[in-house]
Design goal:
globular, mainly alpha, 2 strands, Arc Repressor Mutant, subunit A, two-stranded antiparallel ribbon
């Protein structure tokens, strides 16, 4: 094992990245289960939650834009938008840049729902132990971004 600050050899890197994938997979599955438990409380599916978070953070977007950002198919995102629209959490508004593709905007009710969800998740995330430092979290994000770049070529449609 290489505990130095030197870059790993490709072979060692491959093994260590596999360890990270294994952990990310377990974290994803457990996190998804926790989000699904939250669905029982707020009535928001994981997919609708993703749409609400995106609109909450970045403002109105088209369905194709959301699909690209989330690397999900337009069809899946459209279903999630339709579900959110049925609950009055989002609404379609005219898109000045493109008449055929409406902008989707979060409503006040949608803001209330996603703010409550994010608050609950923030309270849970505050419980993460290990006395983690900002530098460690920045390093973790850097590693995950590099891993994600490996799959930039993967087409979701």
């Amino acid at each position: 094992m290489n505990d130095s600050d030197e870059p790993l050899s490709p072979d060692d890197l491959g093994h260590r990245v596999s360890e990270v994938f294994d952990l990310v997979g377990a974290l994803y599955r457990r996190g998804l289960r926790k989000l699904e438990q939250g669905e029982e409380v707020e009535g928001v599916s994981v997919g609708v939650r993703s749409v609400l978070v995106l609109l909450h953070r970045y403002g109105p977007m088209t369905v194709p834009q959301m699909g690209r950002v989330m690397t999900l198919t337009r069809q899946f995102v459209q279903r999630m938008v339709n579900d959110a629209m049925a609950r009055d959490w989002v609404e379609a508004i005219p898109n000045p840049a493109h008449q055929r593709s409406s902008l989707i905007r979060i409503t006040d009710e949608g803001e209330t729902v996603i703010t409550a969800i994010l608050g609950r998740e923030h309270a849970l995330n505050r419980q993460v132990g290990g006395e983690l430092t900002d530098a460690e979290l920045r390093a973790c994000v850097r590693v995950l971004k590099q891993m994600l770049k490996t799959f930039d070529h993967v087409d979701v449609d």
